[in-house]
């Protein structure tokens, strides 16, 4: 019997558009067998290619769970991003950027020291300025070529904000 990785089957069956998203769904416990409802929690687990998979629960409305964090903060602290320019420091996959745009932000600078992490959907969005391989500590106002940011979101884990 031919077998394939769970994350690859998730993409092949059209449940999501990338292996990275498939891995996140699997690790979050959202991928189950459509017949017996057994949950898969290891993206690399090999299962029969004839297995029918489905997503359990509501699909994520942002490109990552980070979007849910920003959405909650905007509500809790009564902050409006409507018509504003966001600077997303530590953008990674782009959850904060996605949430800001879906909540009315005019534009977002997606800044990160890493590269090739930002979700393809956001890379294609003309409202997103991709600033990869950039450390915010070395940014200057001239780096923000499409207008100065009105507000910033910061989700970093490798450096101190106090340096």
CA-based shape? elongated
Strand order of the largest sheet: 8-7-6-9
Portion in strands: 15-25%
Distance between the termini: 56 Å
The CATH fourth-level homologous superfamily of the largest domain: Vaccinia Virus protein VP39
Rounded to the nearest angstrom, the radius of gyration is: 18 Å
Structural class: alpha/beta
Sequence of secondary-structure elements: EHHEEEEHEHEHEE
Number of helices: 5
CATH topology of the largest domain: the name is: Rossmann fold
In the CATH hierarchy, the architecture of the largest domain is: 3-Layer(aba) Sandwich
Uncertain spans: none
Q: Please write the CATH class name of the largest domain.
A: Alpha Beta
Number of domains: 2
Helix content: 10-25%
Major beta-sheet overview: 4 strands, parallel
Number of separate strands: 9
Query: Mean of the pLDDT scores?
Result: 93
Structural description of this entry:
The N and C termini lie far apart (56 Å). The protein folds into two domains: 3-55, Structural Genomics Hypothetical 15.5 Kd Protein In mrcA-pckA Intergenic Region, Chain A (Roll); 66-154, Vaccinia Virus protein VP39 (Rossmann fold). The protein has 163 residues and is of the alpha/beta class. The protein is built from five helices and nine strands. 31% of the residues are buried. The strands form three sheets. A four-stranded parallel β-sheet has the order 8-7-6-9, with helices on one face. The protein has a three-stranded antiparallel β-sheet with strand order 3-2-5. It has a two-stranded antiparallel sheet with strand order 1-4.
């Amino acid at each position: 019997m031919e077998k394939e990785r769970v994350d690859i089957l998730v993409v092949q069956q059209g449940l999501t558009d990338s292996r990275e998203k498939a891995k996140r769904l699997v690790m979050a416990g959202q991928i189950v067998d459509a017949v017996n409802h057994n949950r898969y929690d290891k993206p690399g687990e090999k299962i029969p290619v004839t297995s029918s998979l489905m997503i359990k629960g509501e699909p994520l409305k942002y490109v990552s769970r980070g979007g849910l964090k920003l959405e909650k903060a905007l509500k809790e602290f009564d902050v409006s991003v409507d018509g504003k320019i966001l600077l997303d420091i530590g953008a990674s996959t782009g959850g904060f950027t996605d949430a800001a745009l879906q909540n009315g932000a005019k534009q977002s600078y997606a800044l990160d020291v890493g590269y090739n992490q930002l979700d393809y959907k956001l890379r294609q969005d003309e409202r997103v300025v991709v600033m990869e391989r950039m450390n915010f500590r070395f940014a200057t106002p001239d780096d923000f070529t499409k207008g100065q940011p009105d507000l910033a979101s910061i989700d970093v884990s490798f450096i101190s904000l106090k340096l």
